[in-house]
Amino acid sequence: MSSQKVAVLHPAVSFSLTQTLVSQLNLCRNPFTKLQEQLIITVLGASGDLAKKLVYPALWDAYRFDSLPEDTRILGYARSKLSHEDLVERFKPQLKVNGDDDEKKRDSFLESLDYIHGQYDEAKSFKKLNEHIESMSQAKTVNRMFYIALPPSVYKDVTEQLSNHCQAKSGFTRVVVEKPFGKDLESYQDLNAHMSNLFAEDQIYRIDHYLGKEMVQNLLALRFANRVFEPSWNRHHVACVMLTMKEDFGTQGRGGYFDEFGIIRDVMQNHLLQMLTLCAMEKPVSTGPDDIRDEKTKVLRCIKPLKIEDTVLGQFVGNPEGESEESRKGYTDEEDVPNDSNTPTFATAVFHIENDRWEGVPFIIRCGKALNEKKAELRVQFRSVPADIFGNSTRNELVLRVQPDEAIYLKVLVKEPGASSEVAQTDLDLSYKCRFGEQRIPSAYERLIVSAIKGNSANFVRSDELEQAWRIFTPILHDIDAGKVKPKTYKFGSRGPSEADDLVKKHNFSYAAYEWSQCHDQCK
C-alpha cells in the first residue's frame, strides 16, 4: 500500500535532548569524583564465570579510565585454591586493551590483584578474610565493598558471615548482591528480612545491570529534559507501549540454572519491569536516589498481579532446517534440562497501570530465547491520527534501542518526494555511532560498580520495589511451577509462538512494514 512505502530520508536530526546526552557522555570520561580514603573491594566467587566475564573486566575498565579511588585494592575470595599465576591466566584474556600503554596498565592491574580461599559458611574462613583485609592496609580509614558474585543458595550464609566478621571499623561497608533476589514473594521477603537484620538499607546494593545501560539511563533525560514529549506522554496520546528483549541463542550451557528460574524470573520480573517503571513513572522531585525510586515504586503499586489470560508462554523446539547444531536442538535437549520441563523460554505479558496517566494503555513485555534476532528496545506507539486526510496513515512511534547499536528514533510520516501527495514513513534518528562517534560508553557493570563505590543507589533496586515486583508475578509463577500453564512450542530462530502476536494485536499494538536501519551514509 502506498502508505507503507519507505522514503529514503535519513536526516541528521538533533533532538532537543542532544545537549543533555552530550553532557552525560562527557561524564563517562571521568564520571565520579574520587574518594580520598582507601578502598578494598572483595569479590566473593572470584573463581566463577560471573567474576571472570563481567565483574573483573568492569573493575579493569574503571581502573584504566581512572574511575576508581587512587588507593584501591582488589581481593578475590572463593573456595578454589588459586595462585596469583592462576588468577592472571584466568583474567588476562578477558581484559581488553588498546595499545602498548593499556597493556602496561593491564599488567600493573593484574599484578596488584590479591586472592584468598575459604568456605562460604564457616566463621573461621571469614575471620581469616577479615585478617587478610586488615593486613592489606594500615590507613586510618579503609572503606570496604563486597561484591557477591555467587549463587543465591549461599546468600544467607555469606551475608551473615560478612556482617559478623568483616565490617569496616572505620569507613563504609557496602554489599553488592546479584539477582535473582528470591524466586517468589515469600522467598524474597525471607531473604530481605535476613539481610535487613544484618545491614542497613543504604549498605545493600541490589544490582540489576540493565539499570546501568546507557539508553535505559537516558529514559529520564528523554522524558523530563524535553518539553516536547511530556504533554503527549499519557493515555490521551499513547496507544500502547512495548518492551522487547530478544536473544538469538539458547541457554548456552546454563540449562540447569535456567530451568530452575525460567524467562520470567530471568529477565521480565527485573530488567524489563525496571524499564517499564522508568517509562511510566511521574516526574520525581529530583534525581536523588530515593526520589526516583519512590516514583518507580508508585507505578508498581498500580499494577495488579499478572493473569494467565494476559500472557502467552513458549518453549523452543529444534529447527530441523537450522544452519547451526545449536539451532537444531530444542530446550529439553539442553544438558541438565528434564525431558518433561514446563519452564518457559519465551513470554509475552500485558500489564495495565491503573492510574490517571495510564488508565487503559496496555504495557506489553515480550522476551525470549532462541528467537530470530538479538535486540532490546522500548517502543512508545502513539494513537492514530484522527480524521486522517491522507488515508491509512501509520502510527508514530518513539523507539529507544538499548542494544545492539544504541539509538533513539522517532517514526514519522512525510510527503513522498516529487509530484506525489502520498505520505511515506521515515525516521528522525539519533544514532549514537553517528552523533557521538568514538566517545566511550561505560559498560553497565562498570557504571554500577563505580556508582556503588560513590554511594549513589539511584540505579539499584530498593527493597520495596522488589516486593511489589514479586507481588505482581508470584501468582502466575506458582501456576507455572505447578504445571497449570503449559508453554506453546516455537521453532528455534522464529519470532516465537503465533499466539503471542495475536495477543499483542488484541491489545492495540499496530505492526507496520517499515524497519529502522542504522546504515545511513553519514555513519559509513
What is the element layout, followed by pairings?
Elements: H1 18-29, E1 38-44, H2 49-64, E2 72-78, H3 84-91, H4 100-112, E3 114-117, H5 123-135, E4 142-148, H6 155-165, E5 173-178, H7 185-196, E6 204-207, H8 214-224, E7 238-246, H9 255-280, H10 289-301, E8 311-317, E9 346-352, E10 362-368, E11 375-382, E12 397-403, E13 407-415, E14 423-431, H11 432-436, H12 444-454, H13 463-481, E15 488-491, H14 498-506
Parallel strand pairs: 1-2, 1-4, 2-3, 4-5, 5-6, 7-10, 8-15
Antiparallel strand pairs: 7-11, 8-9, 9-10, 11-12, 12-13, 13-14
Helix pairs in contact: 2-12, 5-6, 7-13, 9-10, 9-13, 10-13
Supply database-style keywords.
524 residues, alpha/beta, Rossmann fold, Dihydrodipicolinate Reductase, domain 2, 2 domains, 14 helices, globular, disordered N terminus
Helix content: 25-40%
CATH overall fold name of the largest domain:
Dihydrodipicolinate Reductase, domain 2
Spatially, the strands of the biggest sheet line up as 14-13-12-11-7-10-9-8-15
Q: Total number of β-strand segments?
A: 15
Radius of gyration of CA atoms, rounded to a whole number = 24 Å
Protein model, in words:
With 524 residues, the chain is α/β, with parallel strands linked by helices. The protein folds into 2 domains: 38-170 and 172-207, Rossmann fold; 212-393 and 462-523, Dihydrodipicolinate Reductase, domain 2 (2-Layer Sandwich). It is built from 14 helices and 15 strands. The protein has a 9-stranded mixed sheet, with helices on both faces. A 6-stranded parallel sheet has the order 3-2-1-4-5-6, sandwiched between helices. A hairpin with a 7-residue loop joins strand 13 (407-415) and strand 14. Helix 10 (289-301) packs parallel to helix 13. Mean pLDDT is 87; it is low at 1-33.
